[in-house]
Write a structure and sequence with these properties.
Number of domains: 2
Structural class: alpha/beta
Distance between the termini: 23 Å
Number of helices: 8
Helix content: 10-25%
Largest sheet: 7 strands, mixed
Number of strands: 13
CATH class of the largest domain: Alpha Beta
CATH superfamily of the largest domain: Medium-chain alcohol dehydrogenases, catalytic domain
Shape: globular
Strand content: 25-35%
Bound molecules: NADP nicotinamide-adenine-dinucleotide phosphate
Order of helices and strands: EHEEEEHHEHEHEEHEEHEHE
CATH architecture of the largest domain: Alpha-Beta Complex
Length: 290
């Protein structure tokens, strides 16, 4: 990965060109096929990674509606096109939502993937209802911290899990209880309506048995390796959604939702920030413009 000069992208039909102020990425995205190939499977290297953006609309493509030049926006760029770790990115307008002037670009760029994944996992795929119990694996992480807060606000009893060092963070993000996966027994937390798994592997496998009859195992870390005996298992990939982003932004604005930024780096330092040698708690955001 290197920082290079590339031609400025052009806004295609229904796109907007965004002047990027801040960009976010997901640690595992370089392993995803869409990073290296377009939708038809054609090689598209060299690729620009990063799919979360906060910035200002600088041009509209043919036929683009709903946004205007000069408007502050956030959103999720297409997985199979060049991403947001750049000074400009072309994004479909429908993937973007307005960003109010009182939310910093850095905060805005931290919301699309973690916020939308949490929202969709809980309310769309997980069919969450008030009063249910939710077990959140990785509750102090980028996605898990959002799931924890949204579930709690929506009337869940929330049990967070993670490493011993994450206990206080998970409780600060509003989990009622915490299970330390290194030292506590995960099985003691069993009998929940919904497991939201942001860890996968062995933790995901053991989680199917924790789901109560009629409940759900929702995983974002790959296909579930075990199914609840009397319940459903779902894995999904986050999708852009302007309305849901609007709900998330509103909650950040009025203090109901706190984002989880661990590190902010400049574009010049993006390569190092993308490949950290030490653990970073929370999301890393790249500040592209001051
Ligand atoms: N399907 C989708 O649409 C989608 C969307 C977003 C993210 N994802 C995926 O979901 C996963 C989580 O993303 P994220 O951004 O929330 O990552 P993150 O910020 O690193 O959060 C993961 C949390 O889980 C903890 N954890 C991981 N393995 C653990 C283990 N074995 N025992 C205890 N704690 C463990 C991590 O602690 P440490 O940092 O100490 O490991 C961290 O606190 C990633 O694999 C990501 O690629 C999928």
């Amino acid at each position: 990965m290197t920082l290079v000069e590339r031609p400025q992208p052009e806004a295609a039909s229904n796109d907007v060109l965004v002047e990027v102020y801040a960009s976010g990425f997901t640690p595992g995205e370089l392993t995803w096929p869409g990073t290296w190939a377009d939708r038809a499977g054609r090689d598209r290297t060299p690729s620009i990674p990063g799919h979360e953006v906060a910035g200002v609309v600088s041009a509209l493509g043919y036929g683009t509606r709903g946004l205007s030049v000069g408007q502050r926006v956030i959103g999720l760029a297409d997985w199979t096109r060049d991403g947001t770790l750049a000074e400009y990115v072309a994004v479909e307008a429908r993937n973007l939502a307005p960003l109010p002037g009182d939310i910093d670009f850095t905060v805005g760029a931290s919301l699309p993937i973690s916020g939308l994944t949490a929202w969709q996992g809980l309310f769309v795929h997980g069919r969450f209802q008030a009063g249910q119990s939710v077990l959140v694996h990785g509750a102090a992480g980028g996605v898990g911290s959002m799931v924890t807060q949204l579930a709690r606000e929506a009337g869940a009893h929330v049990i967070g899990t993670g490493r011993a060092a994450d206990r206080q963070d998970a409780l600060d993000f509003d989990a009622h209880e915490f299970v330390d996966l290194d030292n506590d027994s995960l099985e003691d937390a069993g009998g929940v309506d919904l497991v939201f798994d942001a860890i996968g592997g062995d933790i995901g496998k053991r989680s199917a048995a924790l789901v109560r009859a009629g409940g759900m195992l929702v995983t974002i870390a790959g296909p579930p390796e075990a199914q609840p005996t009397d319940g459903l298992a779902v894995d999904f990939v986050v999708e852009a959604d302007r309305t849901q982003l609007g709900e998330i932004v509103q909650r950040v604005r009025d203090g109901r939702l706190r984002t989880n930024i661990g590190q902010v780096a400049d574009l010049d330092d993006a390569v190092a920030a993308f490949n950290p040698t030490e653990r970073v708690k929370g999301k890393t955001i790249i500040r592209v413009r001051p």
